[in-house]
Amino acid sequence: MDSDDEINSVQSSEDDFMDDEDSLGEDFDAVEEPDDFGFSQDKDIKPRKQAYEVDFKVWGPGQIQDQQDKQVEEVSAVIGQPTESTAILLRHARWNKERLIESYMDKRDEVLESSGLSEDKEGSASITKADDFMCDICCEDGKDLDTFAMKCGHRFCVNCYRTYLASKIRDEGEAARIKCPGEGCERIVDSKSLKLLVTEDLKDRYHELLTRTYVDDMNNLKWCPAPDCTYAVECGVKQKDLTKIVPTVTCSCGHHFCFGCSLNDHQPAPCMLVKKWMKKCEDDSETANWISANTKECPKCHSTIEKNGGCNHMTCRKCRHEFCWMCMGVWSEHGTSWYNCNRYEEKSGSDARDAQAKSRQSLERYLHYYNRYANHEQSAKLDKDIYLKTEKKMTQLQSSSNMSWIEVQFLQEASQALQQCRQTLKWTYAFAYYLARNNLTEIFEDNQKDLEMAVENLSEMFEKSTDQLAGLKVEMLDKTSYCKRRRIILLNDTAENLKSGMILIIPNS
């Protein structure tokens, strides 16, 4: 854990490169110089990956297609099938090359049959005219009706077949594994049949879906979830590692997201905690404050009870237990003097009050973290409004202070830092809710506090008038750099403790 003194000692050396903090692998860890005042040998200084970063690579649509073509050619050379047939086999095997080659060598005919590539000429795909035939889909019959059937023998009129395929491709987004429309038939419509039946206006969509199927079938590839983005991201983090790693990646479109769950960046909270927290907030946050202020739990069955009258004699509708609303004691001990409740020390009331206090304490603990989580979420939205107006403010500052466009870029940098730090702070409170109390928790909260204070100071400066901003340039640059460093320190420390298992998670929070 770095102290504030250590941070200040490396501030001047880090300012030059902290601006590139958003790029993977372009941050350097602060490394103390050895106590050696003599000359040292020159060494190549290489950027070192932060503890919270993961290796990833972004692939464009053309690169994804090249990857597919390369794998098809490699497998085609091994099994001796044409490239088109090999592509069908790979899609059927969900692009698992090793499994396909092994199964093909052992059970060649079965693999060809299951993938719709049987070499039996009787099952070749073609449109034929049929007499005395009635389509089971549209009930159309007549002479010289164009029909189509695969080797499974389920024959339908061409118009119905084309409508079925169009619905699958256009509406359901399916391409590589479209099944025969016959009831209960599992046979996959092969590529030759699709080329024969798919209309020209759907062929581009069909090929696009084939590419999407490739990415969806690969465990180490995921599409960027940003709207209209066509890039895919490759990351080697396994599903089993998601309890100790938060694999945040950055697409070429600029979108930051978690490779594990595809949600927006939620460092430092692991995916499982994010899922639990979001469900808890959805279930509890709207009613938690009201429950805390207006209800109590039955001392016997712990059902939540709202007082609906002035009388303190309460009867639980669920278990029929009678108790006093004031002291939570058994009502039978109160006699007829319910209005003079002074029996605080009786055991039944004491136990009930202890249980009530424990329940309220749990609720208040949740509200503590939720309110701060929600506050940073709201602040991030307000900061985003500022970000959208930043360019206008930069233009105003440029004209009023005679600064160049390059010189006013510090506002853009400060706005981006605010957005990123708010996002991190928001999730630190969700993360902290599930942490068991120990020394590491206190260190985490100290880091959280330092980052929060720095962010609030920067946010306050950003709201100054345009006339004041020119004089705050140096101070804002320093505070922006400091916010970035505090965020890196918090994320690094948390990531290291997560990987080592030193941070303990409360299982039933």
Commentary on this structure:
- The protein has 509 residues and is mainly alpha-helical.
- Among the domains are: 121-198, 2-Layer Sandwich (Herpes Virus-1); 272-500, Four Helix Bundle (Hemerythrin (Met), subunit A), CATH 1.20.120.
- Helix content is 50%, strand content 8%.
- The protein is built from 16 helices and 14 strands.
- It has helices spanning 4-9, 11-14, 61-79, 83-92, 97-106, 108-114, 158-171, 191-197, 200-217, 271-294, 347-388, 390-401, 409-433, 439-462, 466-469, 473-500; strands at residues 56-59, 127-130, 133-134, 141-142, 145-148, 156-157, 221-223, 232-235, 248-250, 256-258, 295-297, 304-306, 313-315, 322-324.
- The strands form 6 sheets. The protein has a 3-stranded antiparallel β-sheet with strand order 1-8-7. A 3-stranded antiparallel β-sheet has the order 2-5-6. It has a two-stranded antiparallel ribbon with strand order 3-4.
- Strand 7 and strand 8 (232-235) form a beta hairpin.
- Helix 3 (61-79) packs parallel to helix 5.
- The longest helix is centred in the C-terminal third of the chain and has 42 residues, at 347-388.
- The protein is extended, with a radius of gyration of 33 Å.
- Residues 1-45 have low confidence and may be disordered.
Distance between the termini: 27 Å
Which architecture of the domain at 272-500 would the CATH scheme give at its second level? Up-down Bundle
Please give the radius of gyration in angstroms. Answer: 33 Å
- Beta-strand segment tally: 14
The strand line-up of the biggest sheet is: 1-8-7
What string gives the helices and strands in order? HHEHHHHEEEEEHHHEEEEHEEEEHHHHHH
Shape: extended
Query: Residue-averaged pLDDT, rounded?
Result: 78
Helix tally equals 16
Specify the helix fraction band. Answer: 40-55%
Task: State the major sheet.
Answer: 3 strands, antiparallel
What percentage of amino acids are in beta strands? 5-15%
Under the CATH scheme, which class of the domain at 272-500? Mainly Alpha
Give me the CATH fold name of the domain at 272-500: Four Helix Bundle (Hemerythrin (Met), subunit A)
**What structural class do helix, strand and pairing data support?**
mainly alpha
Q: Unreliable stretches, pLDDT < 50, 5 or more residues?
A: 1-45
